[in-house]
Structure formats: structure tokens, C-alpha cells
Automatic annotation (TrEMBL):
<dbReference type="GO" id="GO:0016987">
    <property type="term" value="F:sigma factor activity"/>
</dbReference>
<keyword id="KW-0804">Transcription</keyword>
<dbReference type="Pfam" id="PF08281">
    <property type="entry name" value="Sigma70_r4_2"/>
</dbReference>
<dbReference type="GO" id="GO:0006352">
    <property type="term" value="P:DNA-templated transcription initiation"/>
</dbReference>
<dbReference type="Pfam" id="PF04542">
    <property type="entry name" value="Sigma70_r2"/>
</dbReference>
<dbReference type="InterPro" id="IPR039425">
    <property type="entry name" value="RNA_pol_sigma-70-like"/>
</dbReference>
<dbReference type="InterPro" id="IPR013324">
    <property type="entry name" value="RNA_pol_sigma_r3/r4-like"/>
</dbReference>
<dbReference type="InterPro" id="IPR013325">
    <property type="entry name" value="RNA_pol_sigma_r2"/>
</dbReference>
<keyword id="KW-0731">Sigma factor</keyword>
<dbReference type="InterPro" id="IPR013249">
    <property type="entry name" value="RNA_pol_sigma70_r4_t2"/>
</dbReference>
<dbReference type="InterPro" id="IPR007627">
    <property type="entry name" value="RNA_pol_sigma70_r2"/>
</dbReference>
<comment type="similarity">
    <text>Belongs to the sigma-70 factor family. ECF subfamily.</text>
</comment>
<dbReference type="InterPro" id="IPR036388">
    <property type="entry name" value="WH-like_DNA-bd_sf"/>
</dbReference>
<keyword id="KW-0805">Transcription regulation</keyword>
<feature type="domain" description="HTH cro/C1-type">
    <location>
        <begin position="139"/>
        <end position="166"/>
    </location>
</feature>
<dbReference type="GO" id="GO:0003677">
    <property type="term" value="F:DNA binding"/>
</dbReference>
<protein>
    <submittedName>
        <fullName>Sigma-70 family RNA polymerase sigma factor</fullName>
    </submittedName>
</protein>
Length: 192
């Protein structure tokens, strides 16, 4: 049986055994669909190609340890969606357009996730927040939930403004790392 006649699952099992031809078959099977999806959101051929290549490179490099618990099609679609969002996030930071990103991109993401899954996502985010060290969690909550300024937090907690900034930056880094995984799970849930 030729590789192009195998199901995605059988091809993936071959890929996990380091079969390059099986990976090439999957690559050829999904490249165009993923590219069109990315291009429709990014409106740039080069960026869309970069996003899809990044996803496929990651798939190959993680093949031995990656267990896909959904369909391969759903996994690849979610991974491209995630990379598109990362692209917008990086572009917004570079251009100083994070407000535009929050207003235009995040609402689109939430439209992909069922309301029940949004509640689950919020609950998972809360779990990650509670895992922050106590002082960091306190600073984070004062900023995010009470909307206090750095100066107000510093005064309230009797610490320097730089300490507040450091605590906030550290909390954002820790949460970003863990919430990326949570976000992928939420997107996967939508795909099922």
C-alpha cells in the first residue's frame, strides 16, 4: 500500500517511527489547506508560509514525544491557529498595537471556542494564577483584578515600583507559558 493511501492515523504512526516518506505524505496532504487558512487571516503569503512551516517543523521535531489525542487534521488546524495568533501578538508588540490586538484578534479567537469551554479556560487560568508565589500572585491580582497602577500597588504593599514591575513581568512570563498550553486545549475542544 502506498503512503498516500494510508489514513492520517497510520501515517502518524509511521512518522513516529521516523519514516520521512510518511511525513512528506502528511505534509503534502495538509500544506495547502493550512496555508489557505493562515493566509486568510494574515493576508501575507510569506507570513502564511512561515506559520505553516513552523507548525510542520514542530510536528516533525516533536514526533517521538507528541501524542495527538484528537484527529491530525484538528491538531494541525489548531496549531496553525495558535501560530497565527502568536504572529499577531508579536506584530502588535513590535508595532505597539497591543490594544488593537486585544480588540480585534482575541474576540475572533473566543468565537472559535464554545461558551462552556471559555468557562473551563477561565477556571484553568485561575488554577495557574493560584500557583504563582504568594507575593507575585498578590501583585498580579491587584493589577489585573483591582486595576491598580504600579505606583498604587507599590504604596499599598510598601515595596518599590521596580519590585512591582519585576513581579508583574515574572507573573506574565509564568502565566504565558502555562496558558499557551491551556489555549491549545481550548482550541482542540472546539475542534471535536
Amino acid at each position: 500500500m502506498a503512503f498516500n493511501e494510508l489514513t492520517d492515523l497510520n501515517l502518524w504512526l509511521q512518522v513516529k517511527q521516523d519514516k520521512g516518506f510518511a511525513f512528506k505524505t502528511l505534509f503534502d496532504r495538509y500544506w495547502e489547506k493550512l496555508y489557505v487558512f493562515a493566509f486568510n487571516r494574515l493576508k501575507s503569503e510569506a507570513d502564511a508560509k512561515d506559520v505553516v512551516q513552523e507548525v510542520m517543523i514542530s510536528l516533525w521535531s516533536r514526533r517521538a514525544s507528541l501524542d495527538i489525542e484528537t484527529t491530525l487534521a484538528a491538531y494541525l488546524h489548531a496549531a496553525v491557529q495558535y501560530e497565527v495568533l502568536n504572529h499577531f501578538s508579536r506584530a502588535a508588540k513590535i508595532a505597539g498595537r497591543s490594544e488593537e490586538y486585544e480588540q480585534n484578534i482575541l474576540p475572533e479567537l473566543t468565537s472559535y471556542i464554545a461558551p462552556l469551554h471559555i468557562k473551563e479556560l477561565a477556571a484553568l487560568a485561575e488554577v495557574e494564577i493560584t500557583r504563582l508565589p504568594e507575593k507575585m500572585q498578590q501583585v498580579y491580582r491587584l493589577r489585573q483584578e483591582k486595576n491598580l497602577s504600579v505606583k498604587e500597588i507599590a504604596r499599598l504593599l510598601n515595596i518599590s515600583e521596580q519590585t512591582v514591575r519585576n513581579q508583574l513581568n515574572s507573573s506574565y512570563q509564568k502565566l504565558k507559558k502555562h496558558l499557551k498550553e491551556v489555549m491549545l486545549v481550548a482550541i482542540f475542544l472546539h475542534g471535536n
